[in-house]
Backbone:
């Protein structure tokens, strides 16, 4: 009878015993699979991967003359088979790139790319190579810290966040400016000037402008605002320009080749369409991204007002608009060099007039509820433009004034400026 006295205690230990058996079984299955692949591996031993040699940390190549490769030389104990998978930190896993040698793609745009290789083997802990920065340079341009000083031509101004009343008060403005609603915004950066033709052409290698020549007397043609572009083309510009600084690209859409794969790489998107396109309209902002992007409508109006509640940042007197804007009364029906009028209190130029500015948001009537960092509706047919242009009446340059455009439309009075998150 004494032998059976310990039975209840043994039963209580069974829940501890079985997980240990299961865990040992998992280890044994891994070992068994490893022994099948390589019978020389001793029982109870796991292989270890070591990287012996790899590419240097930074590689410069010339745009349209790209020629080079990355490599990683690894070894493993007990002779197990090594597997390689290359990644680009901008665009994630590189399908089909599974050798120890990786040739730099010849179709890369100007900018900075970050590659690394993951090496794995059955039964071993995988290891990653160092990240290699590949900088695709402009021809004969000077690079410093990975940035082309010849092409780099933008200045960002910190816009401290805050709360403001967005839209027009009752009895003022247009119907789509109501109801006025309270919006709170986080800090962000906004470009001091509109994107110029010079910068746009350097990044996109084309100038679609309706005003490619004959600037006003004393003005510089290349410093006129970029226009004649669509909303779709503006988001391509944002991602391409972000590559120059190695920023985490903001926009992603499904690739042209496979709509189930989302990518931030504009070269996988195909050409910007000249019609409504469901794939392009599904574009989304990558959470945590640091790259350049179009301002939200709320960011634009907040920056335009510069802490004021009047029709314009300088007050309500329409007569003063000529000091700050190129519009129908003084533009002579052309665009003008950016920064030739007075800035607002935040140091931003051409917030009124010259060209209408594209925003991120789809159009909708205001919801009228207190909101933090609004992004607009999730879908729609038309995108927001703000600020008025060279062919706008004075009243249509007000801070609250709203108009729109279809995302594929190219227009000689439409341009854009850039924003970036604080971190």
Residues:
């Amino acid at each position: 009878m004494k032998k059976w006295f310990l039975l209840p205690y043994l039963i209580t230990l069974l829940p501890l015993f079985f997980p240990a058996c299961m865990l040992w079984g998992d280890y044994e299955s891994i070992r068994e699979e490893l022994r099948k692949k390589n019978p020389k591996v001793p029982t109870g031993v796991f292989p270890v991967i070591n990287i012996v040699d790899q590419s240097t940390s930074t590689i410069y190549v010339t745009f349209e003359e790209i020629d080079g490769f990355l490599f990683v030389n690894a070894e493993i104990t007990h002779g197990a088979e090594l597997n390689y998978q290359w990644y680009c930190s901008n665009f994630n896993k590189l399908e089909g790139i599974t050798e120890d040698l990786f040739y730099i793609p010849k179709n890369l745009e100007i900018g900075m790319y970050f590659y690394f290789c993951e090496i794995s083997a059955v039964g071993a802990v995988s290891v990653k190579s160092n990240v290699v920065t590949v900088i695709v340079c402009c021809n004969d341009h000077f690079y410093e810290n990975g940035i082309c000083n010849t092409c780099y031509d933008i200045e960002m101004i910190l816009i401290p966040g805050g709360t403001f009343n967005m839209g027009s008060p009752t009895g003022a403005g247009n119907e789509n400016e109501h109801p006025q609603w309270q919006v709170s915004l986080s800090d962000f950066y906004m470009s001091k000037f509109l994107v110029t033709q010079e910068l746009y052409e350097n990044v996109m290698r084309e100038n679609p402008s309706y005003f490619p020549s004959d600037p006003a007397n004393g003005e510089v043609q290349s410093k006129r605002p970029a226009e004649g572009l669509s909303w779709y083309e503006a988001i391509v510009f944002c991602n391409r320009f972000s590559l120059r600084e190695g920023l985490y690209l903001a926009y992603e859409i499904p690739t042209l080749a496979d709509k189930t794969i989302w990518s931030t790489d504009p070269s996988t998107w195909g050409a910007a369409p000249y019609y409504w396109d469901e794939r392009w309209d599904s574009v989304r902002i990558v959470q945590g991204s640091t790259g350049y992007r179009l301002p939200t409508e709320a960011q634009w109006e907040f920056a335009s007002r510069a802490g004021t509640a009047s029709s314009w940042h300088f007050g309500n007197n329409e007569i003063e608009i000529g000091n700050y804007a190129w519009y129908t009364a003084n533009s002579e029906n052309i665009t003008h060099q950016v920064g030739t009028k007075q800035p607002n209190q935040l140091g931003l130029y051409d917030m009124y007039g010259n060209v209408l500015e594209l925003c991120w948001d789809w159009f909708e009537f205001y919801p009228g509820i207190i909101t933090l960092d609004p992004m607009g509706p999730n879908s729609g047919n038309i995108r927001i433009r703000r600020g008025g242009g060279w062919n706008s009446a004075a009243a249509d340059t007000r801070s609250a004034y709203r108009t729109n455009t279809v995302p594929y439309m190219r227009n000689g009075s439409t341009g854009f400026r850039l924003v970036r998150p604080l971190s």
